[in-house]
């Protein structure tokens, strides 16, 4: 039994994926053409070659530029549907998907255009492929608190389609504390909370996400390992970290996958999960993240099954659904190869 076959066979949930980060160059060119928008690259290959990042910001610049060809509801539908097709291929049965409304509303695209396209794709993925999903609206942390409040207001009529709020974009210099009041209001409106913290930012940002934003999960969180008291707290509270190995590699959060702390944290009892973040930009969807990190860190079958179960435990599914999926992971018997 190869690791790859095991990873492919096990059901899993994805908890950290930005829908704008699933925008493959082929689809980008197709949508740009039909919308009459130009892309400052002559072809798909040249664009892909530009995906050579040295940190988070160098990626974000190109990621926001790519998203700017998305104009109509159908564009958002096509984007999400292409992602769900990858979920089907990778046996991802449930996904909690980030979207960045401000990236679109700032260009004059209406909030409901984005949301209607995404929710229609979510419904169709459930019907066609049995893939469950939730949407998480992220605030761009490089923008102001006021801008985030305005975005939250726009989201209120669509509350039934959005399970939670998140925080993404340029981390250093934009601590979670900048958004304490926005998250307070969002939680009062019934949204769950998550936040990117400890990707490039220090452990203090993870404490702020926990204590001020009152998050249910930390996105990335790999730098938490620098603070042992924080590690002990994450373990005691079973606070999930949505780790993204290929993202960490491409954005130089780690120099090599063999140096990634995923295995160490898993062995210590941190509730870590594996996710793809921005798979169109970082070289792989869920199974590629699993396979590459499992090979680099020599993960065994138990580790891999635990990561799959963690993905359900850390999700926003009901307790009954979590138990059912964890049982399915345990019971998944593989034909000998
Ligand atoms: N970090 C912060 N913001 C982001 C990311 C990320 O990894 N991906 C998309 N927006
Ligand atoms: Zn992310």
Kindly describe this structure.
The protein is an alpha/beta fold. The chain has a single domain (3-336), classed as TIM Barrel, CATH 3.20.20.140. It is built from 17 helices and eight strands. The chain has helices at 3-9, 25-35, 44-49, 56-67, 73-90, 101-105, 111-129, 145-155, 180-188, 203-211, 228-237, 245-250, 262-268, 279-282, 286-297, 301-313, 319-331, and strands spanning 12-18, 92-99, 132-140, 164-168, 192-197, 217-220, 241-243, 272-274. The protein has an eight-stranded parallel beta sheet. α10 links the parallel β5 and β6 (217-220). α5 packs parallel to α7 (111-129) and α16 (301-313) runs antiparallel to α17. The longest helix is centred in the middle third of the chain and has 19 residues, at 111-129. It is globular, with a radius of gyration of 19 Å. The mean pLDDT is 97. Bound molecules: hypoxanthine and zinc ion. Hypoxanthine is lined by residues 18, 21, 56, 168-169, 196, 199, 247, 277-278.
């Amino acid at each position: 039994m190869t690791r790859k076959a095991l990873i492919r066979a096990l059901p899993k949930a994805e908890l950290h994926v930005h829908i704008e980060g699933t925008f493959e160059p082929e689809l980008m060119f197709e949508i740009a053409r039909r919308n009459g928008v130009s892309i400052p690259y002559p072809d798909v290959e040249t664009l892909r070659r530009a995906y050579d990042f040295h940190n988070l910001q160098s990626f974000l610049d190109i990621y926001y530029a790519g998203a700017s060809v998305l104009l109509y509801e159908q564009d958002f539908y096509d984007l999400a549907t292409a992602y769900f097709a990858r979920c089907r291929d990778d046996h991802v049965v449930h996904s909690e998907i980030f979207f960045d409304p401000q990236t679109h509303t700032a260009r004059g695209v209406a909030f409901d255009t984005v949301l209607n396209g995404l929710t229609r794709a979510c419904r169709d993925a459930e019907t066609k492929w049995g893939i469950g999903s939730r949407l998480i609206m992220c605030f761009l942390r490089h923008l102001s608190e006021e801008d985030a409040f305005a975005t939250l207001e726009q989201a209120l009529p669509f509350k039934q389609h959005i399970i939670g709020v998140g925080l993404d974009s340029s981390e250093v210099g934009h601590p979670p504390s900048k958004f304490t009041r926005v998250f307070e209001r969002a939680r009062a409106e019934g949204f769950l909370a998550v936040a990117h913290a400890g990707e490039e930012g220090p452990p203090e940002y993870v404490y702020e996400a926990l204590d001020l934003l009152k998050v249910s999960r930390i996105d990335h969180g790999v730098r938490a390992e620098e603070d042992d008291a924080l590690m002990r707290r994450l373990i005691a509270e079973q606070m999930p970290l949505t780790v993204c190995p290929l993202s960490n590699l491409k954005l130089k959060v780690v120099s090599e996958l063999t140096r990634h702390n995923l295995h160490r944290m898993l062995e210590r009892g941190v509730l870590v999960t594996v996710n793809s973040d921005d798979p169109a930009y970082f070289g792989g969807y869920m199974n590629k993240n699993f396979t590459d990190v499992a090979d680099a860190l020599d993960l065994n079958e138990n580790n891999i099954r635990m990561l799959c179960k963690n993905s359900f435990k850390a999700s926003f599914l009901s307790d009954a659904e979590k138990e059912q999926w964890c049982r399915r992971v345990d019971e998944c018997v593989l034909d000998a190869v």
